[in-house]
Specification:
By secondary structure, this protein is of the alpha+beta class. The chain has nine helices and 13 strands. The protein is globular and about 45 Å long. The structure holds ligand MTE.
Length: 311
């Protein structure tokens, strides 16, 4: 994510990310020496294996992004704005014990231990494309369960029109929260039908193992047809609300980041086109697909909406 407002940015800075990616891919395909420290950080920890079944119906069969890239090139501003900071600093995050507060328009509110949240769910693997608003993408084998299954258990009332998600606020372990680059804690939201869509996923792992901290341990959202920033990490609160909830990037730059944030090659970001993306590990850019290629499953939710207005 870029935190500068349009007025602050010099045209020469706009290409920073793509230049970085090209340089990084060059390093990967050649000596890879400069990458070594990140690879080491990512693979040094041995996360526990998770028992799961593969869900072929909801998975893409595209080539997986390698584990080292998924766990060393991250956006997790709680650990710094640099892509390499989460892998360096997220280790200090205490993820056990962990609880999630369920509140708002719901029949069974409460503060639940993560174990109790997870107990009734069997874990499945779903291979999803993740398209970041910064024009890079990955293919990630997530492990988790459908958000709809969790929502049904807590019985939202008919007034629950939206779901709001909140990340942990703990500056002592999340050094990025000591800087006001965003309003903390990080918040995100979905309309209730989006939250109930069968694609919407709560992930607790990737590549068959417990979620690395830099990727949002112990539990994060994955909404594959929306830009990556909707996929909020390290969730501690799920609130059922009547009105559209605030979301971190919309609060930060409302003209750049809307509530819906559906991947849409037709609607440019004010500072760049969204038509193309670079799959991490590939050199040539590819065309971005409407709804990140998940139109068949999600387009009906937006029928009749002006997607330029509701970006
Ligand atoms: N969640 C929190 N709490 N803080 C963040 O900074 N970054 C978002 C999203 N979730 C972010 C977050 C962005 S911009 C992206 S692209 C994805 O996480 C990146 O997920 P990944 O690091 O697992 O690839």
């Amino acid at each position: 994510m870029l935190i500068k407002k349009p007025g602050d940015i010099k045209p020469s800075e706009i290409t920073d990310e793509s230049v970085y990616m090209r340089r990084r891919e060059f390093m990967q395909t050649t000596a890879g020496l400069a990458l070594l420290p990140f690879v080491k950080t990512a693979s040094a920890k041995t996360e526990a294996a998770l028992k799961h079944v593969k869900n072929k119906k909801f998975s893409t069969d595209e080539k997986l992004t390698d584990h080292a890239s998924i766990t060393s090139y991250n956006n997790f501003y709680e650990f710094g704005t640099d892509k390499t900071s989460p892998a360096k600093y997220a280790d200090r995050l205490t993820t056990s014990p962990w609880s999630i507060t369920i509140d708002g328009e719901v029949a069974k509110p409460g503060k639940y231990n993560l174990e109790d949240i997870l107990k009734p769910h069997s874990l499945e693997e779903r291979i999803y494309r993740l398209r970041c608003v910064e024009r890079w993408s990955m293919v990630v084998p997530w492990i988790g369960f459908s958000l709809a299954d969790l929502i049904k258990r807590f019985e939202p009332t008919s007034k629950a029109r939206y779901v709001q998600f909140t990340t942990l606020y703990r500056p002592s372990e999340m050094p990025g929260q000591k800087r006001s680059v965003l309003e903390w804690p990080y918040v995100e939201g979905l309309r209730i039908d989006e939250a109930m869509n069968p694609l919407t996923f709560l992930a607790v792992g990737l590549y068959g193992k417990v979620m690395p901290k830099q990727n949002g341990a112990p539990i994060r959202l994955v909404v594959p047809w929306k830009y990556g920033y909707k996929s909020i990490k390290s969730i501690v609160r799920i609130s059922f609300v009547q009105n559209e909830p605030p979301t971190s990037w919309n609060l930060s730059a409302p003209n750049e980041y809307g509530f819906f944030s559906n991947v849409n090659p037709e609607v440019d970001h004010p500072r760049w086109s969204q038509r193309k993306e670079r799959r991490i590990g590939e050199f040539l850019r590819r065309d971005t697909q409407m709804f990140n290629g998940y139109g068949e499953q999600v387009a009906s939710m937006y029928r009749g909406m002006d997607l330029r207005k509701y970006y």
